[in-house]
Specification:
The chain is an alpha/beta fold. It has a domain of 134 residues: P-loop containing nucleotide triphosphate hydrolases (Rossmann fold, 3-Layer(aba) Sandwich). 27% of the residues lie in helices and 24% in strands. The protein contains five helices and twelve strands. It has a six-stranded parallel beta sheet, with helices on both faces. The longest helix is centred in the last third of the chain and has 15 residues. The protein is elongated and about 60 Å long. The protein starts with 8 loop residues before the first strand and ends with a helix.
Length: 195
């Protein structure tokens, strides 16, 4: 699975909301622990929807994590133990400084696995994830199910008209949608706004 690990590498797990990114990330953690590769789990302090100090998947799997305000704090944590892998959930919230940090850690021989959104609610490239996808040795792009037509969903549709890019939310604020249904929803919001 991680044949090039000794040389370091970056892996990205991405997709829309509700596609199982955190669950897939935690599955990777279990595999690493089975192989006796100590992982350092990190998430941004900003995202405390489900827990302040755990990565939580929507299916209920929970793992203790370090919540960081700034991704550069990872270097201090790496002094504390013999970690082999750095696991980062909700990575899009760390901003573009994550690109340099992830590249540096992989260059130092760490396995760096990040999970996060590659698109924002307008289907535009979001945060550091698109750049990390270009740099990564491995990319897993997950899909959800469109709530409108039940086809494969690759986007996160925001139900309200807020323009804030980093709006934390869940089922009340967002839906998984396919491209066609996302475009249709945006047009409907525009019509309502112009009435």
């Amino acid at each position: 699975m991680y044949k090039t690990f000794n040389d370091g590498m970056i892996e990205v797990i991405t997709g829309p909301m509700f596609s199982g990114k955190s669950e897939e990330l935690l599955r990777r953690v279990r595999t690493l622990e089975y192989a006796k590769m100590l992982p350092l789990l990190i998430k941004p302090e900003y995202d405390n929807r489900f827990s302040d100090d755990e990565i939580v998947s929507r299916c209920g799997v929970r793992r203790k994590t370090h919540s960081l305000k700034n991704i550069n704090e990872v270097y201090e944590l790496l002094k504390q133990d013999k970690y082999k892998a750095i696991i980062i959930d909700e990575a899009h919230f760390f901003g573009n400084s994550l690109i340099e940090v992830a590249d540096d850690l992989a260059n130092k021989g760490y396995l760096v696995i990040v999970a996060g959104l590659d698109q924002d609610y307008l289907r535009k490239p979001f945060g550091p994830i698109p750049a990390l996808m270009a740099m990564a040795e491995r990319v897993t792009k997950l899909q959800a199910i469109c709530v409108v037509c039940q086809h494969a969903a690759s986007t996160s549709f925001r139900k309200d008209s807020s323009n804030e890019q980093n709006l934390i939310g869940d089922y009340n604020e967002y839906e998984a949608r396919c491209r066609k249904c996302h475009i249709m929803g945006q047009k409907q919001k525009e019509l309502l706004k112009n009435k």
